[in-house]
Design a protein that fits this description.
Blueprint lengths: L1 E5 L5 H9 L4 E5 L2 H9 L5 E8 L3 E2 L1 H9 L3 E9 L3 E4 L8 E4 L1 H6 L1 H7 L5 E3 L3 H10 L5 E5 L1 H7 L2 E4 L9 E8 L11 E11 L7 H10 L5 E8 L7 E7 L7 H11 L3 E12 L3
Parallel strand pairs: 1-2, 1-3, 5-15, 7-8, 7-9
Antiparallel strand pairs: 3-4, 3-11, 5-11, 6-9, 6-10, 12-14, 12-15, 13-14
Length: 278
């Protein structure tokens, strides 16, 4: 079985993918969009992508592609994230910091306090930024990445654990064309149902009606987030997590009632959340 992941090798997403699929072929992709397209085009069986970080919130591209692509979520893995500042071993100083935008955001205060005047540059992933630094020793660059990247690409860590908050975790999801849950041999923390809700235009009280469907059934919503539909100001879709077991009658009736309100519902899956602690 082939599993796509946001690469390159030694990225945080690869670490997550290797925990979920320790015996499968892992195929690196250059972007989150490439991961979704690999599933869509049957180049791989599944893909692992980041969904949410405890410091910076939801990965907006992943949420947008969950809306755009016909895929399901099979499982979710929560993994601790530790960032390190690293340079090429031939250099002693650096004049620019390169990393994924999320990693730069998660280390903003450290860099502001210690390297306020050194600019930063967004890059496709943390591991890719480490690889870039390793391949350009003539440039005085530093990367923000994990310890595995430093080891793989032969970089020198000059500051460890530079994330702004100690409790820094990222949720990774497995996506596929299969409407089924995936069980993995890690500690299970919860189960949930994920939906994307699109309200009819100019429908007063529409969101309140949708939320009431869950409220009177005492179904707990652990997440609700709006994203623009990119069709004009004020047009949104809503990503919703229902934190409960799946009940064939109660859960399905809730979805049926939302549809009856004229709301478009995209069922992303009912699945388990697992946690990996180093």
């Amino acid at each position: 079985m082939k599993i796509a992941y946001l690469g390159p090798q030694a990225s945080f997403t690869q670490l997550a993918a290797s925990q979920i699929f320790p015996s499968e072929e892992l195929v690196p992709q250059s972007s989150i969009l490439d991961c979704f397209n690999a599933v869509k085009n049957n180049e791989v069986d599944k893909a692992v992508v980041p969904l949410e970080n405890s410091i910076e919130g939801t990965v907006s591209m992943t949420l947008d592609y969950l809306y755009d692509f016909e895929v399901f979520i099979e499982t979710e893995l929560v993994m601790p994230i530790a960032h390190h500042l690293m340079i090429h071993p031939d250099n002693e100083t650096f004049e620019k910091v390169i990393s994924h935008p999320q990693a730069l955001a998660q280390t903003f205060h450290f860099r502001y306090d210690h390297f306020k005047d050194i600019p930063s540059q967004d890059y496709s992933s943390t591991a890719a930024s480490a690889k870039l630094v390793s391949e350009n020793p003539q440039e005085k660059w530093a990367a923000v990445a994990n310890r595995y990247s430093a080891k793989l690409y032969g970089l020198k860590i000059i500051h460890e654990n530079i994330q702004d908050f100690e409790q820094n975790h990222t949720k990774f999801i497995v996506i596929s064309k299969t409407k089924s849950a995936l069980d993995i041999p890690l500690p299970r923390t919860s189960e949930k149902t994920s939906l994307i809700i699109t309200l009819p235009e100019d429908h007063a009280g529409g969101l309140h009606q949708v939320l009431s469907v869950f409220a009177w059934r005492k179904m707990n919503l652990s997440k609700i987030e709006s994203r623009t539909l990119k069709t004009g100001l004020g047009n949104y879709f809503f990503f919703i997590n229902v934190a409960s077991e799946w009940h064939n009658v109660l859960s399905q009736n809730a979805i049926d009632e939302i549809v009856a309100l004229g709301t478009k519902v995209k069922f992303l899956g009912h699945y388990n959340e697992y946690i990996f602690e180093e």
